[in-house]
Amino acid sequence: MTVAATPLRILIGKVGLDGHDRGVKLVARALRDAGIEIIYTGLHQSPEQIVTTAIQEDVQAIGLSIHSGAHNSLFPRILGLLREQGAGDIVLFGGGIIPDEDVPRLKAAGVQMLFRPATPMHDIVEFVNGLRTER
Amino acid sequence: MSERKSRFTSLSGLDIERCYGPDHLKGWSAEQDLGQPGAFPYTRGCYPSMYRSRLWTMRQFAGFGSADDTNTRFKYLLDHGQTGLSVAFDLPTLMGLDSDDALARGEVGYCGVAVSSLADMERLFDGIPLDQVTTSMTINGPAAVLFAMYLAVAEKRGIPFDRLGGTIQNDILKEYIAQKEWLFPPEPHLALIVDSIAYCAAHVPKWHPISISGYHIREAGSTAIQELAFTLYNGLTYVEAAVKAGLEVDAFAPQLSFFFNVHNDFFEEIAKFRAARRLWAREMERRYHPRNPRSLQLRCHAQTAGCALTAQQPMNNVVRTTLQALAAVLGGTQSLHTNSMDETLALPTEEAVKLALRTQQIIAAESETVNSVDPLGGSYFVESLTNRLEEGALELFRKLDGLGGMVSAIERGFPQREILDASQRYQREIERQERSIVGVTEHREEDVRSIPILKIGPEVEQEQVARLSDLRKSRDPFKMAGSLEELQEMAACHQNLIPPLIEAVKAKATLGEICAALKEVYGTYREPVVL
Hints:
The structure holds two protein chains of two kinds.
Chain A: E1 9-14, H1 22-33, E2 37-40, H2 47-56, E3 61-66, H3 71-84, E4 91-96, H4 103-109, E5 113-115, H5 121-134
Parallel strand pairs in A: 1-2, 1-3, 3-4, 4-5
Helix pairs in contact in A: 2-3
Chain B: H1 30-34, E1 57-58, E2 61-62, H2 67-79, E3 85-88, H3 91-94, H4 118-124, E4 134-138, H5 143-156, E5 165-168, H6 173-179, H7 186-203, E6 207-208, E7 211-213, H8 215-219, H9 224-244, H10 249-252, E8 257-262, H11 266-288, E9 300-304, H12 316-331, E10 335-337, H13 350-366, H14 380-402, H15 406-411, H16 414-431, H17 459-474, H18 477-492, H19 498-506, H20 511-522
Parallel strand pairs in B: 1-10, 2-3, 3-4, 4-5, 5-6, 7-8, 8-9, 9-10
Helix pairs in contact in B: 2-4, 5-19, 9-11, 9-14, 11-12, 11-14, 12-13, 18-19, 18-20
């Protein structure tokens, strides 16, 4: 079944103090080129800012890039804030420098997908497109 | 015979022909364009005898966890034959925030060492003779504050400032362009940089007050030409700011230093170092006519390309790093950091760092590539590439001039967009399989073997927070507040801020408190979003 008519709005952003934005911008461009509406937050967003923007912009998913090693703290804080604010249905996914051994714990906490370095763009686009049918 | 591809290109997209000969060097003159090592235009190197006299400084960038953890790593590296120190600070420190700031939560000690106070800086260098090693500090937004801390440590130990050697990165323009860690708007940042330049010229003559950096520009996805052009144009912007502030070019230009990336394209990278030296010498000569030849010489540090490493089959990174390091040596670098194989996963372990250091030591001791200066000089191919990189950079110089200079170009998002477009081109080339990465696009292995990685525990943050709390209780609050008021007054009337910064750190004002006080005077900056 295809529900291609469902418009997709995704928040793509950088959380925390990390300034590495090469990857996140390439992902944002690839998703935009695939016809997905992208809200790009820019750099240095706090977890609170990310969640507020996601709710205000009524996005279906949040995709975050973290290269700072702070993923074990930042992802769970965002998941907690989403639940607190009644927005637990917003999908959280991410990528960056995240060691394999941290992935199971983050997924168990509710991060739907974590992309490893050198993931082909079409895998990310496919994943995001897959969110249409899930809703 | 048919060739494997219809088009061969350098990593930066330059077309590469089958074979190079005299036809490719029409108009090129060995006298004008090559010269002698140690002489204008310095294509062949800054010094006449280069590595025959002195090898490059082996300087591994290190920093993680607490000041004590990093101090232990420094001593380990010095014990294993490293010849200079290089400090990596954590993200809160890079952003001018204390370890107990709300925005620092979860980030303390992760990307580098946490330094929030003079006491942290003292512990970082405990037992290390500051008058015998040279220290490079990768710090930009709050560079002047960390430099003041280093000077205060030396003062406490009775080491005269003229015996201190080292570098603060202090290059804010590339922060706006690529690395994205700034505190204030460009103008006050430039003023602070000029303050460090002037202070070093007068009091710390062996210190490099700035390391004008292409490394991060390249890591953000630029081509070699963009790296070369934006870096040197940034350098000229700093020189102009210092000259406008009344400094004599020869009083400070010999203390400027540069920092380049070394990526995978072996010959293009060698050509980049050669083109950088020639272009800098020519532009400095043309614009400022310095009397001291040292003002024309581009001296640099190099680091192998982190972005060229892969998380897949991490052992392969040792080989990549070796090739890149060799290119830097053949390019004539003055100092070098070699990345560790595990750095796409986390900060490096002790074992991985040692192997990276040994890589440099093997090149120096065993490859015999260090015997002759600029051994590729005169190669039709390398000279032709050197010319093309210089020409490409000059073309970007003209575009930047047309935009009203670098600050205005940054505010319009020009360099940021150029880099993002280049990075996207590269990404597409990989995805279309026009470029190969071993272990990623070909020769993949499904069975992923993991290697040990360095872990930073939450106790680093807890201990830092406790130390800061003790510090705030133990100091004289009036003296501390007075030092910040003095700093703000001097900032408001455009005085050199290094002396009041030294006073403030000695009065136990923290990094975060000092930067917050300066933000009250200078304001903050929001970047134009380029997508």
